[in-house]
Amino acid sequence: MMKRAFGIAAFFMLSIFLTGGCGSAEPCPIDGLDEETAAKLKCEDSGGTFANSLCVCGQAFCPAGVVCKDGACAKTAFELSCEASGGTYKDERCECKNVKCDAGLVCNYLTKECPESKPTGFCNVADVFCANSRMYTCGEDNTWKEGETCDKGCHSDQKKCVNCTSDGCEDGRLFTCNDGEIIAGDACKSGKCTDDGLKCELSCTEGDVSCFDGKLQTCTSETWTTTEVCDAGCAEDKESCATRCDDGSTLCVDGKLKTCSGGVYGGEENCDNGASCKSETECGECANESKQCIDDENKIGKTRTCVAGVWKDDVSQCDDVSCDIVTNGCGECKNESKQCIDDENEIGKPRTCIAGVWKDDANQCDDVSCDVVTNECGECKNHSNNICKNDEDTQAGHLETCVAGKIVLGDKCQNNNGSLKYSCEGESEMTVCGTCLNDKKVCERRGGDDMFWVYLCTHGEWKKEYTCRDGCNEQMNECN
C-alpha cells in the first residue's frame, strides 16, 4: 500500500513539474469566461476546431481538455509523466516493460516497472485480485497464484480485467466504455470505423456527388441526399446515371430487386423475408438494423445485427447466458441450467432455463426448502430452531435443524452415558427431549404418594395409569 501511495504521489508531483501548473496541453481557466467558451478559444488558438466540447486536430478528436500542437493533439500531463518515468502511454494507461500499470500509476523511476502491487500474505481459496494487468487467484494452499494477463489492464475494483478503457468504434459500430465493459451503440453511416478505432469514418465530404443503389446522391451535412433515381442504374464512374442497362442484369434498391429490360430497370420484386440489399445487384440475408441471437455449441448466446444486408457479430456478446428468443438479445440464464429459490415462506421453487429465461418446473417442492447444492427440492423446510423427532421403530428421540434444505442432526435424547433413551416431549411441534421412552411402563411409589402406581410413558412424559393396592411386581413393572 505504501508503494502504491508513493507512486501516485510521485505522479502528481511530476505532473506539476512537467506542466508548470496548468500545462501546455490542458487549458487553464480564462477570467470572465465560462469553461466551454474558454476551452473553445484555447482550442482555436492552438489551430484546432472545437466540436462536441472537444478539440479536433486534423481528423482526430482530442481527449477532454487537450488542445493541438503542431497539427496533432498535444500530450496530457499524465502522458508526459508516463513518458518521463520511462513508460509508454497507451489506452489511457502507462505501460512499463510491456506491462500495463493500474489506472493513475506511472513507472518506478529506478526499476522502470509498474509500482509493486502484487497481492501477498494469506488468502481465502478462490479469492481473485487484479494488479498491473495480471490476474491472481488464491490456491488451495491459501497463497496467491499468477493467472491470465489483462490486455487492457485491470478493472478499478481490482477483481477482473477490463474489456475497454475508453469509448471507441469497432466493426463499423460505435461503442461506449461503461466501467470497463463494452456497450454497443449506433452503426456508422459509412459502415466503417477510422483506423485508430476512435470514431466512424465520415460518410461523405460536403458537395461530393455519388451514384449508389441506382440513385444519384449529393453530400449535405455529411449525409447523402438522393437527388435523382436512375432508371438505368448508375454509370461506371459512380458519379452519374447510366443511359441504359444490359438486359437481364439486376439492380437491388431499398430491399427490392429489379431486372433490366429494354435498357431500363423494372419488374420490381421484394427481397425474400424482407431482407435489405447487400450490394447493388443482389439481395442480402436480413433487414438492416434487425437483431438476431444464436446459441453456440456451449449454449452461449451470440448476438448479431444486420448491417448492409449481412449479419455482423455485435461488439459486446452474452456473458455465459443463452439467447432470449423473444427479444433476440442475451437472456438471463444458460439453457438447461437449474435453479431453486425459496419463497417468503421458505418453500422451494425449482426452475429450469428454457430459451434463455427461467421457467418454473411442473413439479414444485412440497413444503420443503431448496437444496442449494443440487438446485432441487431439499429434504426439509429451513428452520434454525431445534425440532425433536422420534424414530418410528424405537421411539428414541433426537434434535435437528434444517439448513439450506438439508437436515442437520443435533443431540440425541438420552441420559449422560447413553444407557437410557428418551422420546420427544409433546404431541405435535415437538422441540425438546422428554424424560422417558414412549410405551415404557414402571410400577413404583413416588415421593409424597402413599400408593403404588403403574406409570406409562406417553409423548415423552410419565402418566399415571392405575394404582396397585398390593404393591408392585418390579420384574414385570406391574401390580402384584
How would you sum up this structure, described in words?
This protein is mainly β. Among the domains are: 119 residues, no CATH class; 66 residues, no CATH class; 40 residues, no CATH class; 40 residues, no CATH class; 39 residues, no CATH class. Helices cover 8% and strands 36% of the residues. The chain has 3 helices and 38 strands. It has a 3-stranded antiparallel β-sheet with strand order 1-2-3, covered by helices on one side. Strands 6-7-8 form a 3-stranded antiparallel β-sheet, covered by helices on one side. Strands 9-10-11 form a 3-stranded antiparallel β-sheet, with no helix packed on it. Strand 4 and strand 5 form a beta hairpin. The longest helix is centred in the first third of the chain and has 18 residues.
